[in-house]
Design goal:
The protein is built from 9 helices and 8 strands. By secondary structure, the chain is of the alpha/beta class. The mean pLDDT is about 95. Bound molecules: adenosine monophosphate.
Length: about 220
């Protein structure tokens, strides 16, 4: 199955994608995670990504396309993928359609997670992440362990992402409204979109996504 998890930054796409990986037996493809890995490597490309990411802006489509192309060619994605944070523009959605078409596939479902802006700000500014394995925490709901060691990998670098400040979140939300929301119409015209509330417990939201994808 090829599933797009859609929604504003901070809607919980990444968290939910991780739950769905086991269920659907396809990998999560997060362009944001791939860009952060590139940035961490210190490469020229990573520096380029950083210019946009730290300003809350979208990385240009041509750079994103290169990333997604090489990721889709990896063997683990041969039966499908959960796209998290991609596509974020109509041009990216069209490019993804073309890439999948070459592989004899198409997007099967788009689940749109709906979360109001005030809740997004609360979530994102409280988010903390393990630099070693990507495990996320929230200072109020799922605080990092007091000994500072990540529950998943034991790493000790649990930090706030530099683009998780309120100022950058507001900027990212503006970008979402202007450039990303129109992607929904692209998929809606194909009858693929199911909207679910992204507010509630993690389990409740996973259940709603399962129902919307017809797998649970
Ligand atoms: P995320 O982790 O998905 O919230 O992405 C973090 C940041 O990476 C975004 O605010 C963008 O600057 C950049 N980014 C991630 N995915 C994309 C994409 N598909 N298109 C453009 N920029 C992206």
């Amino acid at each position: 199955m090829d599933l797009v998890l859609f929604g504003p930054p901070g809607a919980g796409k990444g968290t939910q994608a991780k739950f769905l990986v086991d269920l659907l037996e396809v990998p999560q493809i997060s362009t944001g995670d791939m860009m952060r890995a590139e940035r961490k490597s210190g490469s020229e490309l990573g520096k380029k990504f950083d210019e946009y990411m730290s300003a809350g802006k979208l990385v240009p489509d041509n750079l994103v396309l290169d990333l997604i192309k090489s990721r889709l060619m990896r063997g683990d994605a041969k039966n499908g993928a959960i796209f998290d944070g991609y596509p974020r523009t109509v041009a990216q959605a069209e490019a993804l359609d073309a890439l999948l078409d070459e592989l004899g596939r198409e997007i099967d479902r788009v689940v749109s997670l709906e979360v109001p802006l005030h809740e997004i700000i609360e979530r994102v500014t409280g988010r903390r992440v393990c630099l070693d394995c990507g495990q996320t925490y929230h200072v109020r709901y799922t605080p990092p362990p007091q000994n500072g060691e990540c529950v998943s990998c034991g790493g000790t670098k649990i930090v706030q992402r530099s683009d998780d400040t309120e100022e950058v979140v507001r900027k990212r939300y503006e970008e979402y409204k202007a450039k990303t929301e129109p992607v929904l119409a692209h998929y809606d015209a194909k009858g693929l979109v199911r909207s679910v509330s992204g507010v509630g417990s993690l389990e409740e939201i996973t259940q709603r996504i399962k129902e919307a994808t017809g797998v649970g």
